[in-house]
Amino acid sequence: MRLTVIGTGYLGAVHAACMADIGHEVLGVDTDTRKVEALGAGRAPFFEPGLPEILARNTRSGRLRFTTSLQEAADFADVHFVCVGTPQRPDSLAADLSHVDAVVDGLVPLLTRDSLIVGKSTVPVGTTRSLSRRVSAAARPGVGVQVAWNPEFLREGFAVQDTLRPDRLVVGATASHADQLLRSVYEPMLRAGVVYISTDPATAELVKVAANSFLATKISFINAMAEVCDASGADVVTLADALGHDARIGRRFLSAGLGFGGGCLPKDVRAFLARAEELQVGDAVSFLRQVDRINDRQRRRAVDFARHLLGGAFAGRRVAVLGATFKPDSDDVRDSPALAVTAEILAQGADVRVHDPEGIDNARAALPGPAYCTDVMEVCRDADVVLHLTEWRQYRALDPARLAETVRAPRLLDARNALDQAAWQAAGWHVRALGRPTSVPQPGQRAVHVTVSQALGAAGTAPAPGDPVSGVPR
Ligand code: NAD
Fold this sequence. Notes:
The chain is of the alpha/beta class. It has helices at 10-21, 33-40, 51-61, 70-76, 98-107, 127-138, 159-164, 176-185, 187-191, 201-232, 236-244, 265-278, 287-309, 337-347, 360-366, 376-380, 393-396, 400-406, 421-426, 452-456; strands at residues 2-6, 25-29, 64-67, 79-82, 115-119, 145-149, 168-172, 195-199, 318-322, 351-355, 371-373, 385-388, 411-414, 430-433, 438-440, 448-450.
């Protein structure tokens, strides 16, 4: 089949390449000329494992091309996937649908044959219905243009495999013709046994928003438990392991740490709150406000823990940051918890050096202040504290004994609860983590376990510089 994919960012570029890979002829469209040039030359404009290979393969075969021209798109195909961004509006919690509207307003008057517009972007429930009215008003007389919604569930870092073998395909369409067309598009997946859920547009839109809200809630739940652990001396990692053995709960998305970020979960939770208010069911999802607040609080708690490790102040201290992206295996720094923490400690006067395997260019563009470097040893040289903020695999492979010789003082905040804390402690590190009792090595003694509330004092404030409770020389 001939398809267009309009908006070729993290979602659209992968969708376009994968649709070509399963045999379709695909034209990708974007307003960003640099992106179009790179993609057209078979180069991925962002880091996504597996994407360079399928891009190169399919651009070489001629099945995959890219353009900035909506006219070319209108002439090329009758099925148009819309994959443009739906960020948070600057003035409210709601989603900004202006990019989706711009595509429809630009494309529909150019269509001369009956066509199907398939939304893949994440949108508030009710968008297909309002877009259908917009489309009808803009279509040429005698040209029938349908709108269907087919939300995308891919995960950055696994985007190619998630697109080629999704957990499920969800299609919301009012016309059975639209459903049939999409079954044809995804025929190789259906043949391989991928579940296909055919529903109305509102349900399809809501599936995506509800899925992201559930995942965000699970993360904030365990982060709330981490706060309780810090106040009571319990260990959130053991707690999560024990909870996870209950099949009804499950262990995935139950790791306490810096919380969620990226271009999806935070803005999708907020857009859902805004849309529910419009639908006058704000109370039904008001818990999502807490989910968002708990998530935000983890970033501030991480800053407090790091400052406490330093004895009470960042000014003039050297801080090594491991990780800038919002998650490993991606170069995406949109609403990255790691960068938010970095920005705050920079503002509090620290001399900050940041390492990330793939995200340095994006991080530097978003936050120019710190020194960025791709050499972990260089970043950690003479550091007063090391902050583990994004759980890249290579950080788990670090040798804590070797790193201890590089830093000025072996202090570690494992804000992702992903490192082998016992190994780091054995190598002489003073380790702090969110939701875990802290072990303070005392000269000539076994480690003493101190709860964070004990360490921070009853008011939960950081101790004065040099406070002996930190157990680490300044
Ligand atoms: P992105 O910012 O990486 O990509 C959006 C692209 O659309 C950009 O390349 C931009 O230049 C282009 N664009 C904007 N206006 C355009 C226009 N008028 N015509 C053509 N192109 C235009 O965003 P993304 O991460 O790919 O997300 C896109 C949508 O997919 C969002 O709604 C997001 O919530 C959803 N989504 C994203 C993911 C993910 O993991 N990134 C997963 C599932 C769903």
